[in-house]
């Protein structure tokens, strides 16, 4: 008999004769924390600390509690604790819940002199390398090499000085620094694609172009595609294997809101990014969105070939059918968090995904909210999906979760990714100020519960942004924007 079994049998024997307290129950289907971190069990019927009442983890490691009340038990895990069932034993009964424990570590990202490159988006390839795209980067992008355990810089062909980008951070100047490094993906061939944008939110007089960059790791070679036009800040990027196209979203503060396709075999390649002559539009195609000043951010490909996009500025989710040019938009309820008056209206939908069941899930940046939509009704043209009802709700929204204990004035859900178990992991970007509690968490695979992990340890501002999960190892990788680090969670 294991130690755990012996303890439980002893508890049951000690409880013979009954008691007056209720049988214990735990309200959460799963509990997750960091290694050596805090745990809070919620439920009822725990009673009070007494003979025959205790906690056991896994195969019989007894745990000391810091607080025990009838509806909550709090404790700090020993560093040696591993994932397993967490069991509450009382004289009245026994109840268990899966406990997941994640070890955190981080890897510094080299910062090119003259910039404050901040990692924003990550992607994992088949070799376990983690590719990183950063805001404000000059000359380099990066990848984590699992062989050396270090982040490596990769020089990117850059524009000649004074540059085709522009910034107002240090005055209204032209620059060679890409102000947008919003997304990165790896296609089935192992090619890495990322966006470099003109000054995001820039409102000035200088040229401010964007480009899509393709890097082939095996050949260590680049192909760079200049996006036609000027002031075309681009964000999310998507690979369409069936059509052989790259799709990307363009914000509309200056150049108009658009969804673009790029045929990489037909478009002109310009590794010097020379805009002394007009860009060649061959291989590009664009679709204008209903509101020119909107900010489409990220994209998802539907099984039927249509494109979903998040309309960040105007609090909507859109769907484009490329073959017909039809665009329909789904309005979202009024935001509950912080937004910027005059520009940002509502929750700020950002990254989005089509689930295997066909529904659509996305995060709402300013509302610290994760939402699921009945996409089948949208595809079918159900009129109820395209207007809010009398109570300000959209009947095609199936579920919405606000991150537990979210500070809606200082915390923002940034990115999300699905793991192999179908759980929807999210990251929280906090502000650069004392007391920031940025962390990660997930919605359970059945979309019935949401979990938030404790804040990350360490000094400095805690900010979690882009996220990617290695399908082979289960490691959870994420960008630590303000700490210039690549973070990792590894299940214990």
What is the structure about, briefly put?
It is built from 2 helices and 38 strands. The chain has helices spanning 3-14, 375-379, and strands at residues 25-26, 31-34, 38-44, 54-57, 61-63, 65-68, 72-76, 84-90, 93-108, 118-124, 130-135, 140-145, 150-155, 165-167, 173-175, 184-186, 192-196, 211-216, 221-226, 234-240, 245-250, 258-262, 284-288, 296-301, 307-311, 316-321, 326-331, 349-354, 360-364, 369-373, 397-402, 411-418, 424-430, 440-443, 450-452, 467-469, 476-480, 485-491.
Features:
disordered N terminus; globular; mainly beta; 492 residues; Immunoglobulin-like; 8-stranded mixed sheet; 2 domains; Methylamine Dehydrogenase, Chain H; single chain; 4-stranded antiparallel sheet
Detailed description of the structure:
It contains two helices and 38 strands. The chain is mainly β and 492 residues long. It folds into two domains: 100 residues, Immunoglobulins (Immunoglobulin-like), CATH 2.60.40; 387 residues, YVTN repeat-like/Quinoprotein amine dehydrogenase (Methylamine Dehydrogenase, Chain H, 7 Propeller). The strands form nine sheets. Strands 2, 4, 5, 8, 9, 36, 37 and 38 form an eight-stranded mixed beta sheet that branches. The chain has a four-stranded antiparallel beta sheet with strand order 1-3-7-6, with no helix packed on it. It has a four-stranded antiparallel beta sheet with strand order 10-11-12-13, with no helix packed on it.
């Amino acid at each position: 008999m294991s130690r755990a079994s012996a303890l439980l049998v002893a508890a049951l024997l000690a409880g013979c004769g009954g008691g007056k307290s209720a049988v214990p129950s735990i309200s959460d289907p799963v509990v997750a924390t960091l290694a050596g971190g805090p745990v809070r069990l919620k439920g009822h019927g725990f009673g009070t600390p007494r003979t025959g009442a205790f906690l056991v983890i896994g195969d019989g490691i007894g745990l000391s509690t810091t607080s025990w009340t009838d509806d909550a038990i709090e404790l700090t895990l020993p560093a040696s604790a591993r994932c397993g069932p967490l069991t509450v034993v009382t004289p009245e009964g026994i109840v268990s819940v899966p406990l997941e424990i994640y070890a955190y570590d981080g890897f510094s990202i080299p910062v090119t002199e003259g910039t404050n490159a901040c990692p924003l988006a990550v992607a994992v390839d088949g070799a376990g390398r983690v590719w990183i795209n950063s805001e404000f980067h000059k000359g380099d992008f990066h990848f984590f090499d699992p062989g050396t355990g270090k982040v490596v810089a990769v020089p990117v062909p850059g524009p000649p000085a004074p540059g085709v980008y522009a910034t107002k951070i240090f005055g209204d100047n032209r620059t060679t620094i890409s102000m947008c490094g919003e997304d990165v993906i790896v296609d089935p061939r192992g090619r890495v694609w990322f966006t470099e944008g003109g000054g995001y939110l820039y409102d000035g007089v200088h040229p401010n172009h964007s480009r899509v960059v393709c890097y082939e790791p095996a050949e260590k070679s680049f192909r760079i595609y200049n996006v036609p036009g000027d002031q075309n800040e681009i964000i999310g990027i998507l690979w369409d294997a069936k059509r052989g196209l790259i799709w990307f979203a363009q914000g509309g503060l200056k150049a108009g809101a658009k969804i673009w396709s790029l045929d990489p075999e037909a478009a002109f390649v310009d590794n010097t990014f020379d805009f002394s002559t007009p860009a060649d539009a061959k291989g590009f195609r664009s679709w204008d969105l209903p509101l020119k000043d909107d900010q489409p951010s990220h994209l998802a490909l539907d099984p039927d070939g249509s494109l979903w996009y998040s309309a960040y500025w105007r609090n909507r989710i859109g769907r484009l059918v490329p073959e017909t040019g039809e665009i329909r938009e789904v309005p979202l309820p009024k935001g509950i968090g912080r937004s910027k008056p005059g520009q940002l209206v509502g929750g700020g939908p950002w990254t989005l995904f089509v689930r295997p069941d066909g529904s659509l899930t996305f995060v709402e940046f300013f509302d610290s909210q994760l939402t699921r939509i009945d996409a089948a009704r949208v595809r079918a043209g159900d009129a109820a999906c395209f207007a809010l009802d009398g109570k300000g709700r959209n009947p095609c929204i199936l579920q919405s979760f606000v991150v537990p204990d979210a500070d809606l004035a200082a915390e923002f859900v940034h990115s999300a990714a699905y793991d192999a178990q179908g759980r929807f992991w999210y990251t929280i970007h906090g502000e650069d100020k004392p007391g920031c509690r940025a962390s990660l968490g997930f919605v359970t695979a059945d979309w019935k519960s949401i979990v938030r992990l404790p804040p990350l340890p360490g000094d400095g501002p805690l900010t979690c942004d882009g996220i990617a999960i290695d399908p082979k190892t289960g490691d959870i990788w994420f960008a630590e924007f303000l700490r210039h680090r690549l973070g990792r969670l590894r299940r214990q």
